[in-house]
């Protein structure tokens, strides 16, 4: 996991609402890490919101 691991854990805790210093109302978290002398990188976007449906990008819990 390298140096990205602490940032990834922090992002997950923010989305779960279990971080030591939570951000009120946080819905999206972006975690980016680099490694290998900046030769490799990775980005993950997380949310605690329900996913969009696959049909037309409409939230599954909203009326159509």
Question: What would your notes on this structure say?
Answer:
- The protein has 64 residues and is of the alpha+beta class.
- The chain has one helix at residues 4-16; strands at 28-35, 40-47.
- It has 1 helix and 2 strands, in the order H-E-E.
- The protein starts with a helix and ends in a 17-residue tail after the last strand.
- Strands 1-2 form a two-stranded antiparallel sheet.
- The longest helix is centred in the first third of the chain and has 13 residues, at 4-16.
- It has a domain at 4-19 and 26-47.
Topology at a glance:
Elements: H1 4-16, E1 28-35, E2 40-47
Antiparallel strand pairs: 1-2
Fill in the keyword field for this structure.
64 residues, 25% strand, alpha+beta
Brief rundown of the structure:
20% of the residues lie in helices and 25% in strands. It has 64 residues and is an alpha+beta fold. The protein has a domain of 38 residues.
């Amino acid at each position: 996991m390298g140096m990205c691991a602490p940032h990834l854990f922090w992002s997950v805790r923010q989305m779960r609402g279990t971080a030591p210093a939570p951000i009120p109302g946080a819905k999206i978290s972006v975690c980016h890490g680099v490694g290998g002398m900046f030769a490799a990188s990775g980005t993950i976007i997380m949310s605690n919101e329900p996913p969009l449906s696959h049909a037309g990008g409409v939230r599954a819990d909203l009326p159509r």
